[in-house]
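[stage:ingest] chain + small molecule (S-adenosyl-L-homocysteine)
[stage:ingest] validated
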Amino acid sequence: MSGFHHDKGGKVWIVGAGPGDPELLTLKAATLMDTADIIFHDALVNIRILERARPDTTLVNVGKRGGKPSTSQASIQASMIHAARQGMRVVRLKGGDPFIFGRGGEECLAMWMAGINYEVVPGITSGVAAAACVGVPLTYRTISRSVLFVTGHEARKGEAIDWVHLAKSADTLVIYMGLTRMAEIQGGLIAGGRHPDTPVLAVHWATLPQQRYVCTQLNCFSDVIHQANLGSPAIIIVGEVVRVFQRLSRQEMVCPGDLEQSKIGDLTERLCGVPI
Ligand code: SAH
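[stage:predict] done
[stage:export] tokens:
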């Protein structure tokens, strides 16, 4: 571990690592990684991004994946505070953007309460990246003038998301962590007034080489995504803008109804007979 800064005390940077592709890391994040003494990172941060760290920088996986017992939020924060108090330059590296379903707000509050100097560095959130890399414009004049980011995951037991209420609260819905709640989401959005044939796109491992996506429609998306065996992490996009992508893909890449001729082996949109 190099260069502690005992004179002024340490500092914590709460940094977004972007959706996965190392080239989507910001220059600021890359520079901070170069100068960090210790990096506490999430499990979702791509190994190729972590490989950028200097060999003498301590890397600590505080992720909540991989079958290992998860590190509690309180102990992550305590470790960040402890390292900063030792005078270290601490980078807390989080997938996507720290303030989009990343508990970055809680970490800021913990640093503030402990009197630790901290700064937040934005990252490209996976919902925005997933749409862009598949070619779905989240806003589009006349079709989508509002976008909602929502999590499918309830914060506490019994605090379920009110999908009926959310159904028409924005033109385009971008759903994080929704895979385990698909039946509920599908039913709620239709009950709330979304048309059953509203197009739905799910993108798995957006921006990474293992990226896959499924394009279907609201009244069957739960079954289709299960059949396609699409796992976590995935972003689900609901709204008419997905049709823009379908049109583009029809023109440029894929002949609907004829998956064999498609250049995109991953496109499984015909499972549900989507009208495009
Ligand atoms: N702060 C992160 C979100 C963390 S919550 C961000 O801004 O992106 C974790 C969820 O993000 C996953 O369950 C999944 O829904 C989504 N996610 C993160 N990276 C992803 C990726 N590369 N492709 C698809 N979904 C991703």
